[in-house]
Design a protein that fits this description.
This protein has about 325 residues and is α+β, with helices and mostly antiparallel strands. About 30% of the residues lie in helices and about 30% in strands. A hairpin with a 4-residue loop joins β13 and β14. The longest helix is centred in the first third of the chain and has 28 residues.
């Protein structure tokens, strides 16, 4: 029975693809699309007659591209796949995501199975990061190896050129002397010598240095950020010490030890490709627009770090909610 249902599902999708190709061909040649409408109605009726239990089995074997096509077959299939917590998306999550990620609090901001799967496909790219960085088995967290005199960066798997997008960056270790989050093009470098703000060091990247609260682009500081009286403070591990930006001291060994105590918090990044702006949010408080006039190019979530054994996670959230 199970194999029969799967075969029926694949056959339905094959027919649907054939009908789409035929319809497009008819439109180009000005032929009548009446045969397509009749056949399409037959497929829709047959598709709507399948029970939900059969659809779960069929859809659990299809990839995301095929699932998108299936959602266009009929209203019932669209409604079924639009349920982001049904067993189809749960099974896809179990197959794709590490058990560690599913059971941790890392994905607490994306409660549905479909949202978790979407976040995975937008996570750090293991093939687009510094050689001193690797992506942990959970698929969402990068780890910077303790390499001296090196600044290392990473980009997300998917870049954005249209629409509005939001993602969370969770700095799960000390910030070190430089810790930058932001966006970059594919041309931005991912590694350089020394301890510098790599993200924002050229015209291909834009970043916010969490250590000194400066915005960086094209190698220059674009001013302090946020322009509020409540600049983000980072949790201190152990005894209470002044915030790293509250005092100006030389970078002595003692000073570096103090910096090591600071642990970053969750920062939400908001990229508006329609308005060409980049903004940040902390603890659900909007901190204002950081950069305006972004170019009409594909832009990727990015970070750069200098601290050894630093770990930074990134969770894609989808379009930001207004208000």
């Amino acid at each position: 029975m199970c194999l029969f249902v799967i075969k029926v599902g694949f056959r339905l999708e094959e027919q649907f693809r054939s009908f789409v190709r035929y319809r497009n061909k008819c439109k180009k040649s000005a032929k009548s699309t009446a045969p397509f409408r009749v056949a399409g109605k037959m497929v829709e009726e047959l598709a709507a007659s399948l029970p939900d239990s059969a659809l779960e089995v069929i859809f659990s074997y299809l990839d995301l591209h095929d699932l998108r096509n299936c959602s266009l077959v009929c209203k019932k299939w669209y409604s079924f796949l639009n349920d982001e917590n049904n067993d189809v998306w749960r099974l896809h999550c179990i197959r794709k995501l590490a058990e560690e990620a599913l059971k941790s609090d890392l994905l607490s901001s994306v409660p549905t199975y479909k949202a978790k799967l979407r976040a995975f496909y937008h996570a750090w790219n293991p093939n687009d990061c510094s050689r001193n960085v690797y992506i942990k088995p959970n698929g969402f967290t990068l780890h910077r190896n303790p390499v001296a005199q090196s600044t290392d960066a990473s980009r997300g798997k998917i870049g954005f050129r249209h629409g509005r997008h939001a993602w969370e960056v969770i700095w799960e270790g000390p910030l070190g002397t430089v810790a930058v989050i932001g966006i970059a093009t594919k041309e931005a470098p991912l590694q350089c010598h020394g301890y510098v703000a790599l993200l924002g060091s050229d015209d291909q990247s834009w970043g916010w240095n969490l250590v000194d609260n400066h915005l960086l682009h094209n190698g220059d500081s674009q001013g302090n950020y946020p322009l509020l009286n409540n600049a983000p403070k980072y949790q201190v591990v152990g005894i209470s010490t002044p915030h790293v930006t509250d005092v100006k001291l030389p970078l002595t060994d003692k000073r570096l030890m103090e910096m090591d105590r600071y642990v970053g918090e969750r920062i939400r990044v908001i990229l508006d490709c329609d308005d060409n702006t980049l903004s940040f949010e902390k603890n659900y408080e909007f901190l204002g627009v950081a950069f305006r006039g972004l170019p009409d190019r594909k832009l990727y979530p990015s970070v750069s770090a200098v601290y050894g054994n630093t770990e930074v996670s990134m969770v894609y959230l989808g379009p930001p909610l207004d208000g």
